[in-house]
Inverse folding.
């Protein structure tokens, strides 16, 4: 028995030495050949289950080898910022405009051609053309019908500071989608009003969760009566457990309310890419009819090009009546975060 | 007994005397064969710290101090410390009691209880937290975090303490009993004192794990320092505050490690020779005692293993996404085992010189090396991952997003688990044996290999398994550093749960537990043989 331990220890030492000394180069050389066959590297902050099927279709159509790196949008943005010009990524496919804005701000994106940008309403793309929205997601109010009948659910988030909702509202204040909504609130109503709303929510014992799924769970379990989330979390849940398996329902506030903001998932082409043409092809594919149809039907998001219909289960984009906000104006994230923190919500 | 190589004869006392302390004070200069690799290990472990310093001060010290001097920072530090203290205390109670029951009593199903006792290590804390929240949505944040983290981390105490209990010399306890000490007083005053280094090492790991945990505390809504670091990376894309808070976390860690090394003191746990070459007399608990012991073990196993499994089963029943892509699952399992095994091997290899030095050649330099090894352990995985991104893209681009870098990240993250195990088990081997080997013409390296590591074998193996199991469920560093396209069970699990596809996630989680059970089982079999008088 003990000789086996010795063997393990000796092997361990040998391995460590080889790893430390020369092993690194060998391993690198071996795997480089593998890597070079992939002609496009995509960093995807969007989930594999949701987007891999459509990326597979792209690969099939173009015969291209597409390597996708999946992680959280925020983590990948941090990784891209650390990698800087040495990144292997050609495209960043992100779940929210804020992350794309942060990368654009560091000058790591190439400008997209006008033909691509013009496919999408200017509200849903960067003013300087560094990234473009691919699919829309609406902010909604999830409610538990056992706790609040539908007609009593407020149609404006501004009403949630009312004592009636004390302790009954769930939010995910460190989530990018909530931050974008607060930035929108600041743009629409001014900083003072936004601060007053946040402080009012804090004073009204708003319940804080880590992410949208946790908020939805809390509404579903009647831990809170109302929750502020993105619409597709509910549709994902219904796809998993069926509409009867979930108690929570959604209200689309509409009426130009700040709480009805429509945000996007989008893409940017990395400036240092050596596959600019392929990357551009990928972006155009995502904005093509097939991909847009896919996002409408499979991920229950809002297609952003003309001629592709929103899924019948969703209220159409025109009827949503979201606030008139250009997503490029939501670039004051740091101020928003300070405000959320100062209100004691993060 | 004293050979020509010794300038002073060692004190040839009874087993467990202060020979170790005398010897270590005498030989102050560590041999290069240990010191050089230990310095390499320390250097590797310090990489995240260098990175954090770069990022924290890139906008000038004023900005950094402004972030530190906030009432909120102090509050977060205190909250995190409180959580770490309570969880560590509870883990010591649970871990030591189970270790003693399974190694020193005649309680039935000992082998089964041992495997069950170690298995919660296979349950990622974020999965456990999710399941607790889904069954008990109103679980209070602090109590919930304490419960979940205790259940997930007590094996860090259980495994090394159990190994140490098997390695200690039975004679010492027999002497205490023969001199009239009662059974329970002997346990408290002799047995526990003998395994104190293992308890301290395990407790330290628990404390540092709790400080670094993000998944469980965020799901349970407990506001900790690490949660704020994570959300800062995730949502603000401003790396300065996250880096400053990361440095604060490192300072807290170093303080804890320093306090632990002070508390370890100079007591020697070494015994001469293999001690009494016979089994420990197992305590008979009586009918009532046995029932209580079984109830206690069943409660811990029920909450720590069975409950999460029930939760996973419920995912399967409730969800509709329960597709089972066998190729994919097998592939993920294969790469998980491969990278985790490499991670365990490298980590233990780096830990052996550090652990041996820490026991044999305590001095200022060695203390610094040991504490450096711990520096990165309380850091959240994302910090370690970004630090390695930072260095690799600059200085080691060929390995960037390749397996070696991922394996190195595991070593940085989990080095302390292995160092603790090596240290605690080497402490059981008296230095005088090595000196004898030296006097008989062995080189320092041979003496170490043939004598010390032989005695320390089971403890070191336990450390390797600990690291292996921890690597298997590591998520944040794996996500950022894995080769593009490589999936592990943890990344697959993450990918499914973030879209709420719990039924599809269940097989991956279940397989993690099953795969973890194998090395755990092997370990308990092997160390039983070794500890039970088989070391001849």
């Amino acid at each position: 028995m003990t000789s086996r331990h010795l063997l393990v220890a000796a092997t361990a030492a040998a391995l460590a030495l080889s790893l430390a000394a020369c092993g690194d180069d060998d391993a690198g050389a071996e795997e480089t050949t593998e890597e070079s066959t992939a002609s496009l590297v995509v960093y995807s902050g969007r989930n594999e289950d949701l987007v891999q099927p459509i990326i597979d279709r792209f690969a099939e159509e173009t015969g291209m080898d597409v390597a996708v790196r999946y992680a959280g949008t925020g983590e990948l943005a941090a990784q891209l910022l650390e990698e800087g010009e040495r990144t292997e990524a050609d495209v960043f496919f992100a779940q929210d405009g804020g992350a794309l804005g942060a990368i654009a701000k560091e000058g790591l994106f190439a400008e997209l051609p006008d033909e691509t940008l013009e496919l999408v309403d200017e509200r849903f793309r960067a003013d300087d053309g560094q990234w473009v929205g691919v699919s829309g997601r609406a902010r909604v109010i999830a409610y538990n019908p056992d706790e609040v009948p539908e007609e009593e659910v407020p149609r404006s988030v501004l009403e949630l500071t009312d004592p009636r909702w004390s302790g009954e509202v769930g939010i995910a204040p460190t989530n990018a989608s909530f931050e974008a909504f607060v930035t929108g609130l600041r743009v629409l109503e001014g900083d003072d009003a936004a601060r007053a709303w946040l402080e009012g929510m804090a004073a009204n014992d708003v319940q804080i969760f880590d992410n949208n799924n946790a908020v939805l769970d809390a509404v579903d379990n009647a831990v809170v009566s109302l929750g502020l989330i993105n619409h597709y979390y509910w549709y994902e849940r219904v796809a998993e457990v069926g509409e009867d398996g979930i108690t929570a329902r959604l209200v689309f506030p509409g009426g130009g309310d700040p709480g009805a903001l429509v945000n996007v998932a989008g893409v940017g082409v990395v400036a240092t890419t050596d596959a600019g043409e392929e990357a551009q092809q990928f972006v155009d594919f995502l904005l093509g009819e097939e991909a847009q149809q896919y996002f409408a039907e499979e991920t229950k998001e809002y297609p952003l090009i003309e001629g592709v219909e929103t899924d019948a289960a969703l209220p159409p984009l025109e009827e949503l009546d979201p606030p008139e906000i250009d997503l490029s104006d939501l670039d004051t994230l740091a101020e928003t975060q300070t405000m959320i923190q100062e209100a004691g919500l993060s | 007994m004293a050979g020509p190589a010794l300038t002073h004869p060692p004190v040839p006392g009874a087993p467990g005397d202060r020979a170790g302390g005398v010897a270590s004070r005498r030989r102050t200069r560590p041999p290069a064969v240990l010191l050089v690799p230990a310095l390499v290990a320390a250097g590797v472990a310090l990489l995240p710290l260098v990175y954090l310093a770069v990022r924290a001060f890139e906008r000038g010290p004023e900005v950094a101090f402004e972030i530190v001097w906030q009432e909120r920072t102090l509050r977060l530090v205190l909250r995190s410390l409180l959580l770490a203290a309570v969880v560590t205390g509870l883990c010591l109670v649970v871990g030591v009691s189970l270790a003693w029951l399974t190694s020193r009593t005649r309680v039935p199903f000992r082998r089964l209880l041992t495997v069950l006792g170690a298995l919660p290590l296979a349950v990622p804390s974020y999965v456990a937290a999710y399941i607790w929240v889904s069954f008990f949505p109103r679980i209070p944040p602090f109590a919930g975090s304490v419960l979940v983290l205790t259940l997930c981390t007590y094996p860090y105490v259980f495994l090394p303490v159990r190994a140490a209990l098997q390695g200690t010399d039975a004679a010492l306890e027999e002497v205490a009993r023969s001199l009239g000490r009662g059974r329970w007083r002997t346990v408290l005053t002799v047995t526990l004192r003998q395994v104190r280094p293992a308890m301290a090492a395990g407790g330290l790991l628990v404390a540092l794990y709790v400080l670094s945990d993000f998944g469980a505390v965020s799901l349970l809504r407990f506001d900790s320092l690490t949660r704020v670091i994570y959300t800062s990376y995730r949502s603000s894309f401003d790396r300065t505050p996250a880096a400053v808070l990361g440095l604060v976390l490192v300072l807290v860690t170093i303080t804890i490690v320093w306090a632990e090394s002070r508390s370890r003191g100079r007591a020697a746990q070494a015994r001469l020779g293999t001690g009494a070459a016979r089994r420990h007399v197992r305590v008979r608990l009586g009918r009532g005692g046995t029932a209580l012991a079984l109830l206690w073990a069943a409660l811990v196993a029920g909450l720590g293993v069975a409950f999460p499994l029930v939760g996973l089963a419920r995912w399967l029943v409730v969800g509709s996404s329960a597709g089972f892509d066998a190729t994919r699952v097998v592939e993920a399992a294969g790469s998980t085992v491969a990278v985790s095994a490499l991670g365990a091997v490298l980590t233990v290899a780096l830990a052996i010189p550090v652990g041996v030095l820490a026991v044999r050649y305590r001095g200022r330099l060695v203390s610094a090396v040991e504490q450096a090894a711990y520096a990165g352990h309380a850091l959240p995985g994302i910090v370690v991952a970004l630090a390695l991104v930072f260095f690799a893209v600059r200085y080691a681009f060929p390995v960037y997003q390749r397996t070696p870098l991922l394996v190195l990240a595991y070593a940085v993250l989990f080095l302390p688990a292995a160092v603790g195990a090596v240290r605690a088990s080497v402490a059981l081997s008296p230095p005088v044996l090595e000196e004898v080997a030296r006097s008989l013409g062995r080189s320092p390296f041979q003496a170490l290999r043939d004598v010390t590591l032989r005695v320390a074998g089971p403890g070191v193996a336990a450390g390797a398994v600990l690291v292996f199991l921890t690597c298997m469920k590591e998520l944040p560093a794996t996500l950022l550093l894995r080769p593009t396209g490589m999936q592990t069970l943890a990344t697959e699990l993450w990918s499914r749960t973030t879209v709420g596809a719990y039924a599809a996630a269940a097989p991956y989680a279940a397989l993690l537990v099953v795969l973890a059970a194998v090395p755990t089982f092997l370990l308990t079999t092997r160390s039983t043989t070794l500890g039970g008088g088989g070391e001849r």
Residues 37-265+279-534 of chain B form a domain with the MetI-like fold fold (CATH 1.10.3720.10). The CA atoms of residues 288 and 294 of chain B lie 10 Å apart. Residues 1-26, 272-277, 527-536 of chain B have pLDDT under 50 and may be disordered. Chain B touches chain A through 79 residues (CB under 8 Å).
